[in-house]
Amino acid sequence: MSSTYNRDHADALSSKIGSMRFAMFTTRDANGHLVSQPMTNQQIDQEGGLWFYTRSTTELWENIAHEPEVNVSFANSDDSTYVSVSGQAERVVDRNQIKALWNPMVQAWFPAGPEDEHVVLVRVMPHAAEYWDSNDSKMVRLFAMAKAAVTGSTPDVDAEHGTIRM
């Protein structure tokens, strides 16, 4: 992957994703169709790279081999924060990195441990991230939506939308 990055942009992405661990990871299959599956983000590195575990026997692994452009979407409906990351996925077979990111939750999905030859990593290096973030409380948002439904107007909520270019 590229060694050039903007540290401020990587920090901004990390801040937006925050503690959201679960994402929908979208690839293109061999027929060019979009395919999504839930994945758990293990880490956002200093360059803004997102790290995920998978198996070398999965469709996701194969899809990345023939089309590395992917999308990873995060959502936290409790605070109305949504982040959509587009980037290039890299297939990583590095036992040291696999061990470094290993944790008890990963062990549940890969019971043979980090030495399992099929346990591999995917790193997504973002090109850009779109985000939507509401500054209003959940109660204020619900009230605004109810009011809009009754009046036939658009909800008046304090929301921020932006793009982080990596």
Could you characterize the architecture of this molecule?
With 166 residues, the chain is an alpha+beta fold. The chain has helices at 7-17, 59-66, 95-101, 104-109, 138-151; strands spanning 22-28, 34-40, 43-44, 50-55, 69-76, 81-92, 119-134, 159-165. The chain is globular.
Query: Regions with pLDDT < 50 over 5+ consecutive residues?
Result: 137-144
The averaged pLDDT comes out at: 86
DSSP E strands, number? 8
Radius of gyration, whole Å: 18 Å
Helix content: 25-40%
What is the N-to-C succession of helices and strands?
HEEEEHEEHHEHE
Distance between the termini: 13 Å
- Count of DSSP-assigned helices: 5
Structural class by helix and strand composition: alpha+beta
Strand portion: 35-45%
| Largest beta-sheet characterization | 8 strands, antiparallel
Indicate the overall shape.
globular
Protein topology:
Elements: H1 7-17, E1 22-28, E2 34-40, E3 43-44, E4 50-55, H2 59-66, E5 69-76, E6 81-92, H3 95-101, H4 104-109, E7 119-134, H5 138-151, E8 159-165
Antiparallel strand pairs: 1-2, 1-5, 3-4, 4-7, 5-6, 6-7, 7-8
Descriptive labels:
166 residues; alpha+beta; 5 helices
Quick recap:
The chain has 166 residues and is an alpha+beta fold. Helix content is 28%, strand content 39%. Strands 1, 2, 3, 4, 5, 6, 7 and 8 form an eight-stranded antiparallel beta sheet that branches.
